């Protein structure tokens, strides 16, 4: 184990990222355990931190840890020392506390245990997946072509650079269409984002609001596909997330677009 750690992590220059990843996962699991115990009213567990009537959210401590860890990481030159591991761990722990309350930052109100609070769990899962890929050695498509690998590289091939840009554009369009996971996967695996970009948008996404008028054929097709494919997948994802993060408010049986989809429109035949 020590030999693997030395060869795969330290010698490969992955110690800061490894320390960040471990601290991030551990921090998220700990804070979720803490808030679940507080929610359950366990007497022996410390409650929420308050100053008078002010509830101090753990995102405050997360920002502080990220600031100290980030600045320390910039100052430490030796990338294989225990000091950089500590700095990266501080940053990872802080990032976990911040992303666990991502919904609070997004909505500017406490929605932690509501349906909107699931956004925080989604953000953490995305961060874990991306960091895990980077830690395993996977790099975004075009990393070397744009000279980001640090090895100098050779002559830039215009055709390959064009493919990288097209793939990146596909990822952006996929994200705008509400396809978070395929959009991010396309950053690492070429063509995936391009395929996702040409398919129907997810109901409620920015692309759907901009490009699919209510009652149009594309709008109805997007809703039917969402009901048939995406909603069951979301329910399965929520069940898995609740095992780790706790149960939020019950997901509605019929989201607004589902109710609209069940009403016959003028364009449908009786």
TrEMBL record:
Name recorded for this polypeptide: Integral membrane protein
Keywords: Membrane, Transmembrane, Transmembrane helix
TM ranges: 15-35, 56-77, 83-108, 120-138, 158-176, 183-202
Compositionally skewed regions (Basic and acidic residues) per UniProt: 250-261
Region (Disordered): 250-270
